[in-house]
């Protein structure tokens, strides 16, 4: 296994699992692009342990130990993800804590099935999504982490809330619900309504309250977007705008997130990216 093969393996993972991100970040210069593929592979690996692993708690604990060994310079060089990531850590000033935060977020998915407040959801979103932005910052904007950190965290919040609003049905099927209990109580939305897959006025109210939070976080993220180098600015903004469009797509489908997963049509993606 050589380094080029390792990076190619990582690229195949993102190409297969996240077409929006792959399309946006393919616009990066080659070396930055490869680093993003490796970081994505790390995130996908830890995410798959929790969502698809036979014994997720034990496997996640083992992965956490593997990551600590990796930081100490001890890793399986035949594992393409670790091999590519070792090159990234060598070439960029990586934030180790961001990687640990991602693992913590996956642990939260094993331990906690409900969240009380919007703030609780944001805390969860920080670990599973904002952490990704903090991993990417040293690659996308070297030396500008302090200026861009708040915006990267906000973009993670926004994208994760968008995921939550798109994947309500899918999450319910595996026993998870990320809509805050307080918000559901406020609008008299109960769990049975969700299980009946009913798009009620109460459901729309809760959905829109969360969407408003996402829109606020997107706006906050875009405030500092011009601080990114030009080569990174377009991919980052493009990824954010395409993801935000998921909310519009769901509204156009009358909020029916049950029994289907909404994606931004290719034509809409092309229009968004054409105006960057």
UniProtKB/TrEMBL annotation:
**Pfam family of this protein, just one?**
SQS_PSY
Q: Which InterPro entries match?
A: Isoprenoid_synthase_dom_sf, Squ/phyt_synthse, Squalene/phytoene_synthase_CS, Trans_IPPS_bact-type, Trans_IPPS_HH
UniProt keywords, alphabetically: Carotenoid biosynthesis, Transferase
Top-rank lineage group of the source organism = Bacteria
PROSITE patterns assigned: SQUALEN_PHYTOEN_SYN_2 (PS01045)
Which pathway is this protein engaged in? Carotenoid biosynthesis
Query: What transmembrane ranges does the database entry give?
Result: none
Q: Which PANTHER family match?
A: BIFUNCTIONAL LYCOPENE CYCLASE/PHYTOENE SYNTHASE (PTHR31480)
UniProt protein name: Phytoene/squalene synthase family protein
| Species for this entry | Metaplanococcus flavidus
Q: What is the lineage of its organism?
A: Bacteria, Bacillati, Bacillota, Bacilli, Bacillales
